[in-house]
Amino acid sequence: MDLKARAAAHPDHWSKANAIRALALDAVAAANSGHSGMPIGMADAATVLFEKHLNFDPTAPNWPDRDRFILSAGHGSMLLYALLHLTGYEDMTLEQIKNFRQWGAITAGHPEYGHATGIETTTGPLGQGISNAVGFAMAEEIQRAHYGKKVVDHYTYVIAGDGCLMEGVSQEAITLAGRHQLSKLVVLWDNNNITIDGPVSLSDRTDQVGRFVSAGWDVIEIDGHDPVEIDAALTRAKKNQKPTMIACKTHIALGHAAQDTSKGHGALTNAEQNTAAKAAWGWTTGPFEVPDAVLQSWHAIGARGKAAREAWEARFDSLPRGKRETFNRAYALEVPKKLSATVKAFKKQMSEGAPKLATRASSEKVLEVINPIMPETVGGSADLTGSNNTKTSDLGVFDTDNRGGRYVYWGIREHGMAAAMNGMALHGGLRPYGGTFMCFTDYARPAMRLAALMKIPTVFVMTHDSIGLGEDGPTHQPVEHLAISRATPNTYVFRPADTIETAESWELALSSKTTPSVLSLTRQGLPTVRTEHKTRNMVAQGAYVLADAVGKRQAILMATGSEVSLAMAARDILHAEGIGTRVVSMPCWELFEEQDEALRKRVLPGGPVRVAIEAGIRMGWDRWLFGERGKREKSGFIGMHDFGASAPADVLFKELGITAEAAAQKVRDLLAGKWKPDTRV
Amino acid sequence: MDLKARAAAHPDHWSKANAIRALALDAVAAANSGHSGMPIGMADAATVLFEKHLNFDPTAPNWPDRDRFILSAGHGSMLLYALLHLTGYEDMTLEQIKNFRQWGAITAGHPEYGHATGIETTTGPLGQGISNAVGFAMAEEIQRAHYGKKVVDHYTYVIAGDGCLMEGVSQEAITLAGRHQLSKLVVLWDNNNITIDGPVSLSDRTDQVGRFVSAGWDVIEIDGHDPVEIDAALTRAKKNQKPTMIACKTHIALGHAAQDTSKGHGALTNAEQNTAAKAAWGWTTGPFEVPDAVLQSWHAIGARGKAAREAWEARFDSLPRGKRETFNRAYALEVPKKLSATVKAFKKQMSEGAPKLATRASSEKVLEVINPIMPETVGGSADLTGSNNTKTSDLGVFDTDNRGGRYVYWGIREHGMAAAMNGMALHGGLRPYGGTFMCFTDYARPAMRLAALMKIPTVFVMTHDSIGLGEDGPTHQPVEHLAISRATPNTYVFRPADTIETAESWELALSSKTTPSVLSLTRQGLPTVRTEHKTRNMVAQGAYVLADAVGKRQAILMATGSEVSLAMAARDILHAEGIGTRVVSMPCWELFEEQDEALRKRVLPGGPVRVAIEAGIRMGWDRWLFGERGKREKSGFIGMHDFGASAPADVLFKELGITAEAAAQKVRDLLAGKWKPDTRV
């Protein structure tokens, strides 16, 4: 490509794009680590997007009606940091750029949500950003339907690379976007033909245009270095009735010795080559130096959105007060004042009625009272609506002719659902929850981890949470999945024992501002164990004494979810034998861990033998069994030691030895000094 | 649809297909659980496939050159069980069919590999079967190139439903199949327009034909109930130079009151409606009764392949003895006799040279000596070849013009790679290993779990296994992933400390017949800690004394992988202070758990304080810290308590407190009685 001719044809554009290229090149070289080629290759498209289309205001980075810009190809983080710096985001100083990838800097290797303003989502694990974006675009549609076009009317722009498009989750995302005609979603594909291992053709020869068309998208193919073509494509995309993919034919590491090679994908650190590249671009200033005129023109771009933002504020202020309050409350992730009283009333009613219900059905009952008072909830399921019990009567179904519908039929797309829910949460104004079978935590994992890392309160409703699902067998029976979610930092794993604990878990999940929740719910019916009404949210304590020993306390049974009623039955057996037994329900370990030592000690005092009962593997339980004043030789575990099997649930619990009698026998053995190690302790 | 006209047009076909339909309907009704509609809807296609195309022999179900049939829509398991029963697989008795989904039966809710002959892979988690199938088809190509068309020449047939096609992993699989022109892969799509939540259009409107064409497939659209069209499509598919998708337009639960509804997807248990359905099909016998003539014609289909199998055996016997032996050895998952000596010689050389190497580089060195003597290995990476160090010089690259190549550029498809590797392992004759960053365990999880469940020895090479990867930051830094894999039943998690342990881990992973392995390898360089050569494979013991205390043993440091050298440095610090310290390297917990109590006690005696060092979260360590003769108040953990950060690796280890000095200080504190709980113990 004749770079001189390019520069001559569009000198202003060229120098602005060069500023991105140069900052990226310098920052990566200084860090001796990172990805130079992508920011260099996509600088033209990003420049035109920010200059002529993106509606944003660096002085109000969280303005709710801004356009969203998502760098799905997160390894090209310097593209984003350069844009934020050049357009005048206050926190993105030149010092931060110079400290790219260093301890304490906000300029992490991949864009981390919450580190710097203007980062809309954490990207890096490929395919996540484009899938988040679908959630952003859905959130915009839903909010527009709820609040009107005057206050919600913005676009979601994505830059995605070949890696994003090869990840399977992108297929889930783009077919979902096509299905819902998300016309305000625009994906710019950095079509540079290069991956780490070499040319894309080494591993993939997909006709991406045909693929997107098959998913219901409009596709525009352009020269990704031509500002006129980029501008025209974006203009057309914004008028589309379908989501738009703009295939930008680009050269990775444009103008560098590593142009069009996989070497160009990584860190370009050869000083001589970097100098030559800058010369080829016509960039003459020193490292990290942006000529004043160029900086001013970028600042002007950054200042462009102020008027629009102020006009929006005026329009917003003209909304009825109630609408404004709800809007602001939802964006602030505050729950409505009514929530607490609503949950209490529900609990009282359930304690009195003491229904026998699967906790998935309990969950539906809870949602039936919560959803009407929290218009920001958006429910859904990955094609298991009737099984996950996620749909309540008032939600309405999100569709092309019902944009205000708050229930999403996500289809068989657990991963795409989780990622899009994250997008909705990040967009703001909505509280998404979505269901699948707990075993399919596996499919949703990459996005579940990112919710935890980003500190956003997405709610994952995981039903059929043990062998209790029965005949579907080991492929569908979670065994290690409680451990997996508990192992993940910043994740609440709720495993409620009955309808009351389910209500309390939901209250906590929906009150969380910075921690995602996993709700582990049963397929099978469970008795109400909380028959005595308490206004206090006991799950908030993480673990508590559900029923204390009668007489001398000789044993403590610890259990979660469906095994709490087993523990209660074991307690009855033991009490009949004169063995005083306490039952501790432990619906949320993470919250119990946050309690102080004195409280934990009151719940789990030293002395009695301890038996934990949970229809999952043992990993993690040792803290509560041996630790916290327990002793290995005075403790036992009743649970799973391997994958499950296909049979009716009651047969499985019996055959696999997860019964009240087994728990009682374990207590008797321990009291008699007959401790035995687990086969897999 | 006029069922009578259908029956009249092809009476023989119709009655055979009816046998499948009736058995499925009866078995699901008897179990009161399962999926009736899919077997009913796909009975025609399956009948034609088995009658006229599938090359198989029920009397030799593992005949290596059989065609493979994969029921990707695993919930329709009764389709498969009916076919196996009708064609005469000995273990699939009518009794088993009657015990569908019951305890102890081989007829699990979803087809479980290893439960019954003729089940080629475990399916149920949607999208897995079709992705396994790509691995099967690649394995066939590779083996054909190695052994010749006379002994390897078979097709892989798949039945996939809408759910399989909506799962993102299917996109990874089909684009891979298209890229490699896997012409002997044929997918029959059960295009019935129904999912659990309702019509497919509720959540998806993808043009599947366009999608497959964009991925490089040939697509044939047919009436899925017309045996002539089915036969013609299969005939054409077999001659194709591309993979073929046959879109079979079908009616779920054909002829039943629930036909074409989502109710028809599930268990059809209404006796009256079931009777009416049978009447509509023209099926007049009682439950589980197949008229003798129909059974005979099915048995004839089952007998069809015997001659071909015998002819194959004759051709196989004419292979040179060496080839035959290698072929049989690889199918039996036996390692070559040379392996042990090769690994020993390598270990000796490395102990002497004591290189400082990242274990990912150690792994490459090991593979450089193993791959040449194990022609059954197939390596690969999800677009991180240079980072995962999975490619050795002799493998050659698998491609359309080099079918014998043993290295696969999987592209950015971690999930598809893992599932296809499972397919290769299931196909037989190959030992696949593939790499990605350990953090992307998340993407590969669904297939990794299935490897464990199926008991197949797939090897997952997970490099960049901690914050030691440095600047890429928290999105790329595994923290909980060791715990995740350790939580999974039947999985070896190897975290070697140096080149020697890496060699020992590889020897074990490649010797395993029934357990998949995760190799957790560093990005950063590590010193050799096993400088004294031992012929014995110490990793086989799971944990062992790497260096014992000098003087009185006051402390035991336990560590894995990159933290073993930290433990050794801490030991030096402590010895200088007169504190006798043992270092226990624990490269594979699962293998240590298998050791007897006496051995475990020798390695981890009671008494000394214990400190575990691992750059991951604590979960799981409590067993070794408090359990196994340890005490909570005499133990400590040096590791991660949250997600990582973006900075150079050495800065991260220091800032996050994972250092030799921190470990030494923890020992001093514990010896002084100054125990403190972890923030997240």
TrEMBL record, chains A, B:
Binding site for substrate: 35, 265, 360, 387, 464, 472, 476, 523
Keywords per UniProt: Calcium, Magnesium, Metal-binding, Thiamine pyrophosphate, Transferase
Catalytic reaction list: D-sedoheptulose 7-phosphate + D-glyceraldehyde 3-phosphate = aldehydo-D-ribose 5-phosphate + D-xylulose 5-phosphate
Comment on bound cofactor: Binds 1 thiamine pyrophosphate per subunit. During the reaction, the substrate forms a covalent intermediate with the cofactor. Binds 1 Mg(2+) ion per subunit. Can also utilize other divalent metal cations, such as Ca(2+), Mn(2+) and Co(2+).
Full protein name: Transketolase
Domain Transketolase-like pyrimidine-binding per the UniProt entry, residue ranges: 357-528
Gene name of the record: tktA
Organism domain of life: Bacteria
